[in-house]
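User: I'm putting together notes for a lab meeting next week and I want to include a structural view of one of the chains we've been expressing. I don't have a solved structure, so I'd like a prediction I can at least talk through. The sequence is below, exactly as it appears in our construct file.
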Amino acid sequence: MRNIAEFLRDAWHLARPYFTRSEERRSAWLLLLAVIALRLVLVGMEVVLSFWGNAFMTSLQEKDWRSFIDLLLTWKVTDNGILPGFCGVAVAYIVIAVYRIYLTQWLQIRWRRWMTRFFLDEWLADRAYYRISLIPPNDGGRELGIENPDQRIAEDLRAFIGDGVAGVRGILFLGIDLLSNVVSLFSFIAILWSLSGPLEVLGVSIPGYMVWVALIYAVVGTVATHYVGRPLALLNFAKQRVEADFRFSLVRLRENTEGVALYRGEDEEKRGLLVRFEALAANWWLLMQRYKMLTALTAGYGQVASVFPIVVAAPRYFAGLVPLGALTQTAGAFGQVQGAMSWFVDSYADIASWRATVERLSTFHRAIEAARAAVGQGVHPGAGGESGYALEGATLALPGGQALLEDADLVLRPGESVLVTGRSGSGKSTLFRALAGIWPFGRGAVRRPLGSTLFLPQRPYIPLGTLRHAVCYPAPPDAHGDDAVRDALASVGLAGLAGRLDDEDNWSQRLSGGEQQRLALARALLARPDWLFLDEATASLDPEAEEALYRLLHERLPGTTIVSIAHRPAVGAFHERHLVFQRGAEGPGRIVEKAAA
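Assistant: Thanks for the context. Below is the predicted structure for the 597-residue chain, given as structure tokens.
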């Protein structure tokens, strides 16, 4: 964990954009100032209640029934001014407290909504999400702050801002609470100074001695709390990571239930889940130990603070120098001053947890910025040409730096169908990623022609939502009419789904691998791209179905240039040109032209 100055700079860097650059900044400032104003009004009411308590307890001591009733129901003129009745103050306090919470929660959800959009925009822009996903945790991904981006956007943003409904204390609660404590400190310190009087110690008169006692008491508690709770920030940082790892493992199991069932891998899955849970439990145990020590300290600190001011001020009361009301007001003012000075003690656990959240969000944002700054690296897109796709001086490398292809030139001309083959793992899919302009490791240029392009990977992406959305993706669900969508499904052998266009389901689990590939080909029929790249997009189908679908593509998309990666020889009959990606066990490979079938 980094030092305090860096932590505060990161927190400011995260909080500033909403109030300085967003389209909601004016209303955000109004809400923030309203919340602060209401909180400060509550502090002022606490000051009034302090004087009211003095007068009320004095009326009890003096058995003054009239003053007692006036202070409860109406008002009373005292030496300190007009004191309102308790009922009126209580009603006003309740109304202000309710609307302070309401406006705080309103600001929290608006701020979180904007920050969620901001982080999604940054994460998705320039395919930063793709670049940072290519670096696994064991290659430094954890240190770069790129693991579990879903948790950082969903959970860490919520924890950063705060969630008043769920009781999650974030920057709004901590910041406004700190401000109100500062105001409360200066408000009550004057009261405490005037009430406490001087104290003779070894012949030296100490004015306002209760103020100095409160200061010493708070400093001792703060130092002790920091010493005991210092490891909590790092432990909370680790807690969020292991919780996310465990949850991600459960999601992976849910998404791959059929594969686990077919492999009968339940025992291995359970072992892996329990290993991750044990890491979670080990971290939890360390947190328990640290929180136990911290709770013992803060609970003892709070218990002593409840009687400490009365004990310190009691000699003056028993000496007859102050009435009972002044004693209780002194105790109350001491509690307010000591509480304000002890804000760090009372909020230490929340600060430690929030600091870990700031650290995770900051490292994630820096990883996004680094990924976007590196857009020009790798095989970068060049100006389009009329001759089709072209790789120029392209070197493709793995994230670790190992070269797959070195200084290669390749031209794919429009109108010709091209088959790309090679051994598994040789780099064929990486070649397609380079042609798509998304592969960030290597150098060179790819020139892409005008017109639309569609890449279909071996495992199609099926978005959440209706079947219509899944078929039309990446176009909007209403981009194609019902008849066109049903015809596309029927053409690829999914006529049985034509009546379920508006059904919402987890289609990536509902459909088999072959059905998912058929659905992806239906997308191609609807999109009618100028260029269609198929990365083993029919590998899950039987040979007869594969041939039928290739024939369908050539018939229905006569103006589309088809480039395929495939292993079955029969696919070669549907292509005019054959490229072989040759690569040995070590060193870069090469692309060799071979006679077409």
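A couple of points you could mention at the meeting. The CA atoms of residues 7 and 359 lie 7 Å apart. The chain is about 60% helix and 15% strand.

User: Perfect, that's what I needed.
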